[in-house]
C-alpha cells in the first residue's frame, strides 16, 4: 500500500506523540535521579551522584531489591515448568475441555491486578481456612500470587511456538527409532528453546515490577522494591533516593524485555 506524503507525515507525527507520551516521563525520572534538589523540580538546576550513593548505601533498598529478585526468580522457575507442561498438553494432545483450559490459563493476564490480588488474599485467608489450613501472608504467598500471571506469559510463548512448528519432525524422529526422550532432547527442545527463554525473561520482568498483587498477598515484613518506592514516595526528603530506585527499576526492567524482543526477532532462534 502506497501512502501519500501527507499521510506519511501524519503517521510520523502520531508515532512521535505516542512515543513521547510513553517515554518522556521515564526519561524525566532518570534525569531527576541526578537532580541535586531535595524535591521534584524541573528542570534540574544542578546535578549530583549523591543520591545514587545514598541509594546503594541504604539497607532498605538493598533488602527490598534482594526480595524482588528472589520472588521474581522463584515465580519464573515455577511458571516456566507449569506453563511449559500445559503448553505441551494443549498443543500436542486432543482431549475434552482443552480449549476451556487454554482460556482459563490466559485469563489472569487480562484481569485487573486489584481483582487478582483481592481474590488471592481471600483464598489464602478465608477460603483455605475453612478446610482447617492456616496460611499466613508472607514471602510464599507473594510467590504464588506472581506465578498466576507469570504462567500466562510462558504458556503463550511456548504454545504459539509448538503450534507453529507442527509435529512432522517429531513423528519422523519416532519413525526412525528415537525414544520419546531422545525426540524431545534433539528435536522438540531446540524448536521451543528460544520461546522458553523469552517467556522466562518476560515473566521475570513482570514479577519484578508487580506491586498491586504483591501488596495484597504480602504479610508484615515483606517489602519488594516497587513496594519500597510506594512506601517512601511521600516521605519528606526521600524523593531523590526514590528517583534513583525508580531509575534502577526502569533499567532492570528494560533488560529482559530487550533480550526477549531480540530473541523473538532473530531468525536463528525462531526457525522451526
Annotate the secondary structure layout:
Blueprint: H1 5-32, H2 50-57, H3 59-92, H4 98-110, H5 113-130, H6 139-165, H7 168-175, H8 180-209, H9 212-217, H10 225-232, H11 239-265, H12 267-270
Helix pairs in contact: 1-11, 2-11, 3-4, 3-6, 3-8, 3-10, 4-6, 6-8, 7-8, 8-11, 10-11
What report would you give on this structure?
The chain is an all-alpha fold and 272 residues long. It has one domain: MetI-like fold (Orthogonal Bundle), CATH 1.10.3720. Helices cover 78% and strands 0% of the residues. It contains 12 helices and no strands. The chain has helices spanning 5-32, 50-57, 59-92, 98-110, 113-130, 139-165, 168-175, 180-209, 212-217, 225-232, 239-265, 267-270. Helix 3 packs parallel to helix 6, helix 3 runs antiparallel to helix 8 (180-209) and helix 7 runs antiparallel to helix 8 (180-209). The relative contact order is 0.14.
Amino acid at each position: 500500500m502506497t501512502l501519500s506524503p501527507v499521510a506519511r507525515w501524519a503517521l510520523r507525527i502520531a508515532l512521535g506523540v505516542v512515543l513521547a507520551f510513553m517515554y518522556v516521563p521515564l526519561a524525566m525520572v532518570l534525569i531527576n535521579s541526578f537532580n541535586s534538589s531535595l524535591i521534584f523540580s524541573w528542570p534540574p538546576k544542578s546535578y549530583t551522584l549523591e543520591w545514587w550513593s545514598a541509594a546503594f548505601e541504604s539497607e532498605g533498598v538493598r533488602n527490598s531489591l534482594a526480595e524482588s529478585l528472589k520472588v521474581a526468580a522463584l515465580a519464573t522457575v515455577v511458571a516456566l515448568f507449569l506453563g511449559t507442561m500445559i503448553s505441551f498438553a494443549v498443543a500436542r494432545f486432543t482431549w475434552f475441555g482443552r480449549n476451556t483450559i487454554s482460556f482459563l490459563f490466559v485469563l489472569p493476564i487480562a484481569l485487573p491486578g486489584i481483582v487478582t490480588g483481592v481474590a488471592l488474599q481471600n483464598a489464602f485467608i478465608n477460603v483455605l481456612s475453612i478446610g482447617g489450613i492456616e496460611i499466613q501472608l508472607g514471602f510464599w504467598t507473594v510467590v504464588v500470587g506472581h506465578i498466576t500471571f507469570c504462567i500466562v506469559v510462558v504458556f503463550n510463548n511456548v504454545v504459539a511456538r509448538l503450534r507453529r512448528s507442527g509435529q512432522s519432525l517429531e513423528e519422523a524422529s519416532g519413525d526412525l527409532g528415537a525414544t520419546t526422550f531422545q525426540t524431545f532432547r534433539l528435536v522438540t527442545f531446540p524448536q521451543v528453546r528460544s520461546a522458553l527463554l523469552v517467556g522466562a525473561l518476560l515473566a521475570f520482568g513482570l514479577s519484578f515490577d508487580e506491586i498491586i498483587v504483591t501488596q495484597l498477598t504480602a504479610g508484615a515484613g515483606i517489602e519488594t522494591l516497587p513496594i519500597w518506592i510506594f512506601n517512601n514516595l511521600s516521605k519528606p526528603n526521600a524523593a531523590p533516593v526514590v528517583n534513583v530506585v525508580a531509575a534502577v527499576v526502569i533499567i532492570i526492567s528494560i533488560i529482559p524485555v530487550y533480550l526477549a524482543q531480540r530473541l523473538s526477532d532473530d531468525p536463528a532462534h525462531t526457525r522451526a
